[in-house]
């Protein structure tokens, strides 16, 4: 696959170096634009410049033949005309580097030298391709203004005076129009390339943002799940540490909770790491808990020694939308985890009310703990994550101290 991609890039680069002019490649290639160096001629540039040189020489030879047939022109003037024509043909190779200077210089040279007429037209075409219209308008208007005077000074032996003027006017306008068409076509190509680059950049930014949001969601899920499991481990391990003389039944029960919680934490961690490796969303793996699993969560907390009162006034928890039920479950889970850490021994009340059309309200409250409770450090990221989770679900979350010194968390979630 890498070799095919390299071959394709090489082919595209070679084709571009042939079919595109160097100025357009310089605009299309950002590395060339940043280098500040003048673009080198491509193979196409050499072919076009050589063809332009041959065309200028051919027109100059036709003009020299016309001068030699006119017996009224002095030989010295004919020789001077041919010298100017030869120098003008050589100047064709400078048309890409100095388009405005060459076109402006060819206005007086083309007026006094008939063999330089082809170079004047080529310079005007190059100016129309490489410079804005205001420069082209000034140079072309000056040439058109000199056309009647030119044919008055050097009348064409084969055409009448009005026909010669009209013919040269039409030729000049056609050259300018052709050059402007080529310029507009190149600008269109540049605009399409710029749009493609912007689209690629926007797509990359959207992908990075989606990846960041997915990882943040996985991080919140990891915090909610593992914090609950590890708190259970800490509580039962602490009970075994401070009560080594506890009955065998209590020790066995605590050891069973520790083993089960460790197993669940490892399984949750394994699933989350698997999601990160696969780059998928956090919907993979086991089904996520909803409001119907709230009673199981409360029973698990009671088994860990936390006094929990569940007041669930939702008739059918399974009818709650999955996203709303999962958010309510995570809010209750995080609040029970915080209560075990910061207010051990207190009775935690979990109230869930609401119905379709009126929304779902989750309230978790605990009184102030009695006695001296050791300070448990915390960064407050759990409550911040809960607030963000509720906001993403379209609801609100309030938390803070209660009037009796306890703590209360209240969330309102939509249930349309």
TrEMBL record:
Coiled coil: none annotated. It catalyses: ATP + protein L-histidine = ADP + protein N-phospho-L-histidine. It comes from the Bacteria. It holds the Pfam family HATPase_c. This is histidine kinase. Its EC number is 2.7.13.3. The chain crosses the membrane at residues 46-64, 100-128, 135-153, 159-181. GO terms for molecular function: kinase activity. Residues 215-279 form the Signal transduction histidine kinase subgroup 3 dimerisation and phosphoacceptor domain. Residues 327-414 form the Histidine kinase/HSP90-like ATPase domain. InterPro entries: HATPase_C_sf, HATPase_dom, Sensor_HK_TwoCompSys, Sig_transdc_His_kin_sub3_dim/P. It is an enzyme of class 2 (transferase). Keywords: ATP-binding, Kinase, Membrane, Nucleotide-binding, Phosphoprotein, Transferase, Transmembrane, Transmembrane helix, Two-component regulatory system. It comes from Streptomyces marokkonensis.
